[in-house]
């Protein structure tokens, strides 16, 4: 078995319009956990469909600080939206604008 293809422990895909975010928990050969967050955006170049991808790696020693930072900014967004100064309407895309993206596309 190829280790690279089998080190995934958990995956969650979040589709958001033209973008899909993949939150993946993986393990190293030494069974340390890490997270990859991948943004995949559908693109067209010279009439050909493709995907532009950006990935970050989050290692176990940074999990708590990352979580605290993310919670902090999400709470701040909620506060700012409550002031009425910022757009609070959730934009929704029609189901037709979504494309099926699988992890293998990455």
What does it look like?
The chain is α+β, with helices and mostly antiparallel strands. The protein starts with a helix and ends in a 24-residue tail after the last helix. A hairpin with a 2-residue loop joins strand 3 (33-45) and strand 4. It is flat and about 50 Å long. It has helices at 3-6, 63-82; strands at residues 8-16, 19-27, 33-45, 48-59. A 4-stranded antiparallel sheet has the order 1-2-3-4. The chain has a single domain (3-85, 93-105), classed as Roll (Nuclear Transport Factor 2, Chain: A), CATH 3.10.450.
Itemize the secondary structure elements and their pairings:
Layout: H1 3-6, E1 8-16, E2 19-27, E3 33-45, E4 48-59, H2 63-82
Antiparallel strand pairs: 1-2, 2-3, 3-4
